[in-house]
Specification:
The chain has 825 residues and is an alpha/beta fold. It contains 27 helices and 30 strands. Strand 23, helix 15 and strand 24 form a beta-alpha-beta unit. The chain starts with a helix and ends with a helix.
Length: 825
């Protein structure tokens, strides 16, 4: 595989500018989702890269100027964490080094380790245009990011303000929603009594975070809740803090949660913040960026949030204000980098207004300019975009694109802000924050092609044709790319979004380092070959559908590669005849017709992104049509020219899916040349013979039935039967392994009995016919009983409604198979 890959790279054919032949037709382009420079190849990468490689190879073979543009992402937080860990082992820290020296260390790390994942990608056979490789912090990308920021700021779409953000106390930065892992965590739901200020009673609230009550500024109820109508407008006393807070009404309060009354802490919850803005409530921050209680928490100052929770509950219980406590499992956000509980904090950050951009991005999808595959994800896309919030784009880390924002004091001591792509000069101090990694990757499809300059690649390859990525980043990345491309270029970033599923472990669980259940794709490549891994990830897996990884499936496609190899070695033993191949026998006409049908179906499957069906079509043709039937038939009536023609076309069709084995065999077959630029086969309707396909299909059914008869009648090799058959009896005999003689009229005596198998009438000694009929009767009876049990189970409404959908589907599939088998018998 390594040798073949080096030949591909040496050819230069991965570069659309270096493709041979006449000027290529319209271009085809894909932007590779940039992998994190800290990452290692995982099965999700392997799946996505395989699909992109299939599409690029296919369109290149169809004569298009195919560009697959690769790149890597600076992975701001992840990279900083890795380098900081290395510094800790050296007994130092980024703070001791200072920003400039720390960034120098990160660039050194990037130079040493940043290309790891690209080298691993090569092992899969993925062949993007490495000469155009980009990095989200290279010089061109830096210019693009700064230009985009300035344009958005000048358009008053970027602003600085206080909002609730995800804060990691360990990483000491705001983080994106994608970097928050929501884990089902067992905890408690405390019911707390808040006394009414006028002494007339109390109002009870339920909370999973009693420590945040130190910052409560209201209690909220739903205005339609009859339990609390008389309390709206009154004040309650905040326990432990001796502060009066209002009881407000708002339709966003869920009447069914807890008591229907909720505490409002605007500085520590997104919904509470919105309530605070609506009702003009003060925001009191009682948890700081270090995860500890601030001075606003009075007696609890300095405690961690966990310690404060225990102390608050203890004092509330001592004061008789805990009404009850329930076990409660809820989703808690953890930082994906440090595995620390995320604190929702009110923080002064930079934000991007997204409402209007989202409306335009939704219109682009609704108009059909962008197609989402599978289309059910369009609903999810619209739901997210309709409920979009302003995007927190600033991060409090050093590695990343630093905000092109500068400050200085004027003559009166007032701070002046300036946004500039270039440093304004002396006296100006740059903002310490960096940009969210998703900001730079949101510009990916067009910044990598030369924007904001006038590079020739931009009008040539943009919009790109397809984006291939996992469904889980439809909002975090795909939606933002659509917003940015429409905003800056007035065009979509791609024509189609293909969303693949997530690869799960054998038990159906998401793979992760913490669970130690991940599968290294390179181990699979070493064990079974890259071709086998690629096919195993494609076949049987629908777009947008998560699926379980099964090593035995990879092994099965290794066997398939071996089958292809053995077919080729068998054919290559025979000298290739001079001149074009001509069909001479029924088997010849049949295999040529089947090859045309396969070409047509395969081309349609790839064009419609049905890669699983394409793989299944190829597998069925190679293993069954070509190997099991035509090769065996050719041993009786050999047509070497047709054998070579079918093999050559088969290798061409298989190449995008299994590039290594097909390229190796092609070079042996043609003594030169590369499948990279070999033309994709064209469907030739004139070579389709429905008569040949029908006649050969009848023969196949007769052969299969005759093989079954031989097996279940224990027919010895020396016994010869008679048959009345259309076509070649010699072929029927050769393929079934049963001795036969042709006759116009069957011998039916006391010793011989007539039997109909498949599409042919036979006559065999009666004891073998009786033995076969006895087996068939038993088999029929068993199937009828089995089908009756399945029908009874599936007729049970309780089973159908309450059993897992996968189990019900499996039972229905079993019944369909059993009924088909019964029909065949």
């Amino acid at each position: 595989e390594g040798r073949i890959y080096r030949l591909w790279e040496k050819s230069g054919f991965f570069n659309p500018d270096k493709l041979p032949g006449k000027k290529r037709r319209r271009p085809f382009s894909i932007s590779m989702p940039p992998s994190n420079i800290t990452g290692e190849l995982h099965l999700g990468h392997a799946l996505g890269f395989t699909i992109q490689d299939i599409l690029t190879r296919y369109h290149r073979m169809k004569g298009q100027a195919a560009l697959w543009l690769p790149g890597t992402d600076h992975a701001a937080i992840a990279t900083q964490v890795v380098v900081e860990q290395a510094l800790q082992q050296e007994g130092t820290s980024r703070q001791k080094l200072g920003r400039e020296k720390f960034l120098k260390r990160v660039w050194q790390w990037k130079k040493q380790y940043g290309s790891r994942i690209n080298e691993q990608t090569r092992r899969l056979g993925a062949l993007p245009d490495w000469s155009r490789e980009r990095f989200t912090m290279d010089e061109g990308m830096t210019l693009a990011v700064q230009t985009a920021f300035k344009k958005l700021y000048d358009q008053k779409l970027i602003y600085r303000g206080e909002r609730i953000i995800n804060w990691c106390p360990v990483c000491q930065t705001a983080i994106s929603d994608l970097e928050v892992d929501h884990q089902e965590t067992p905890g408690s739901l405390w019911y707390i009594a808040y006394p009414l200020a006028d002494g007339s009673g109390k109002i009870s609230v339920a909370t999973t975070r009693p420590e945040t009550m130190l910052g409560d500024t209201a209690v909220a109820v739903n205005p339609t809740d009859p339990r609390y109508k008389k309390l709206i407008g009154k004040n309650a006393k905040l326990p432990l803090m001796n502060r009066e807070i209002p009881i407000i009404a708002d339709p966003r309060v869920d009447k069914d949660f807890g008591t229907g009354a909720v505490k409002v802490t605007p500085a520590h919850d997104p919904l509470d913040f919105d309530l605070g803005q609506t009702h003009h409530l003060p925001s009191i921050q009682v948890i700081g960026q270090d995860g500890k209680i601030t001075p606003a928490g009075h007696d609890f100052e300095g405690l961690t949030s966990v310690e404060a929770r225990a102390r608050v509950v203890e004092q509330l219980r001592a004061g008789g204000m805990i009404e009850r406590e329930e076990d409660y499992v809820h989703a808690v956000g953890y930082c994906s980098r440090s595995n620390t509980v995320i604190e929702p904090l009110l923080s002064l950050q930079w934000f991007l207004k997204t409402k209007d951009m989202a409306k335009k991005a939704m219109a682009t999808v609704r108009s059909g300019k962008i197609r989402i595959v599978p289309k059910r994800f369009a609903k999810i896309y619209f739901h997210w975009m309709e409920n979009i919030r302003d995007w927190n784009i600033s991060r409090q880390i050093w590695w990343g694109h630093r905000l092109p924002v500068y400050y200085k004091k004027d003559g009166r001591g007032k701070v002046v802000t300036k946004v500039s792509v270039k440093h304004p000069g002396r006296g100006w101090v740059q903002d310490e924050d960096t940009l969210d990694t998703w900001f730079s990757s949101g510009l990916w499809t067009f910044s990598t092609l030369g924007w904001p300059g006038r590079a020739k690649d931009l009008p040539r390859f943009h919009p790109t044709n397809v984006l291939v990525t996992g469904w889980d980043i439809l909002f975090f990345w795909v939606a933002r790319m659509i917003m940015f491309s429409e905003h800056f270029l007035g065009q979509p970033p791609f024509r189609t979004v293909y969303l693949h599923g997530i690869v799960l472990d054998a038990e159906g669980k998401k793979m992760s380092r913490s669970k130690a259940n991940g599968v290294d794709p390179l181990i699979m490549v070493d064990r079974y070959g890259a071709d086998a891994l690629r096919m195993s990830l494609i076949v049987g897996n629908a777009p947008g559908q998560d699926f379980r990884f099964q090593e035995q499936k990879v092994a099965a496609y290794r066997n398939f590669a071996n089958k292809l190899w053995n077919i080729s070695r068998y054919i290559l033993q025979h000298p290739r005849p001079i001149g074009s191949a001509k069909a001479a026998t029924l088997a010849d006409w049949w295999i040529i017709s089947r090859l045309q049908q396969t070409t047509k179906a395969l081309t349609k499957d790839i064009d419609t992104f049905d890669f699983s069906s394409a793989g299944q079509t190829l597998y069925a043709f190679v293993w069954h049509d070509f190997a099991d039937w035509y090769l065996e038939a050719s041993k009786l009536e050999k047509n070497v020219g047709v054998l070579y023609q079918v093999l050559e076309t088969t290798l061409t069709l298989l190449h995008p899916f299994m590039p290594f084995v097909t390229e190796e065999l092609w070079r042996q077959l043609t003594a030169g040349g590369s499948l990279l630029v070999h033309p994709w086969p064209k469907y030739a309707a004139g070579h389709v013979s429905k008569v040949a396909e029908k006649t050969f299909a009848d023969l196949q059914k007769s052969v299969v039935a005759l093989r079954n008869f031989r097996a279940h009648s224990a027919l010895p090799g020396g016994v010869t039967g008679e048959c009345v058959a259309r076509g070649s009896v010699a072929l029927l005999q050769a393929l079934s392994g049963v001795s036969l003689r042709a006759t116009d009229r069957l011998e039916v005596t006391s010793k011989f009995h007539e039997i109909f198998l498949g599409h042919t009438r036979f006559s065999f000694p009666i004891e073998y016919v009786d033995r076969y009929e006895s087996w068939r009767t038993r088999e029929r009876q068993w199937l009828e009983t089995y089908i009756a049990k399945l029908e009874q189970r599936l007729g049970n409404e309780q089973f159908v409604e309450h059993a897992p959908a996968a189990v019900v589907a499996e039972e229905r599939e079993k019944m369909a198979e059993a009924k088909q088998r019964l029909l065949e018998l």
